[in-house]
Design brief:
Radius of gyration: 19 Å
CATH architecture: Alpha-Beta Complex
Oligomer: single chain
Strand order of the largest sheet: 1-2
Bound molecules: zinc ion
Number of helices: 4
Strand content: 5-15%
Largest sheet: 2 strands, antiparallel
CATH class: Alpha Beta
Number of domains: 1
Order of helices and strands: HEEHEEHH
Helix content: 40-55%
Length: 120
């Protein structure tokens, strides 16, 4: 009986966390909450914060430092899936990544990727 109770509590906590994460995801990605800025990046209406920086911050469990730069691996500025985002400590390290990719995959791909939506 106690084991059954324990299982119910564990399941309840699991469902609660699952639901809370789903709500957070919804708040982060709801089309109503975001807009496309002039630079081609998605931002939140309420705060004007960049969505990709918030997504990475959530992934890391902290807010990004001002000099940290987020890189879109596929070069699609609107693909803010956590797996598509890399953080560099500063712009110089970010530039170095693009130069490495230019050597390995060609100049055009390094700055445009498969998205053809512009650099980054
Ligand atoms: Zn980049």
């Amino acid at each position: 009986m106690e084991l059954l109770f324990l299982l119910l509590v564990v399941f309840g906590v699991y469902k609660y966390i699952q639901e809370r994460n789903a709500q957070r995801e919804e708040a982060f990605t709801s089309p109503d909450a975001i807009y496309l800025d002039a630079g081609g990046y998605l931002r939140y209406h309420d705060s004007d914060r960049l969505v990709h920086r918030a997504v990475v911050g959530q992934k890391l469990g902290r807010r990004l430092r001002p000099l940290e730069v987020v890189h879109h691996r596929d070069r699609n500025k609107q693909n803010n899936h956590p797996g598509n985002l890399w953080v560099f400590k500063a712009q110089a390290a970010h530039d170095a990544q693009h130069r490495r990719d230019a050597v390995n995959y060609g100049e055009w791909w390094s700055y445009n990727g498969s998205s053809a939506r512009g650099s980054n």
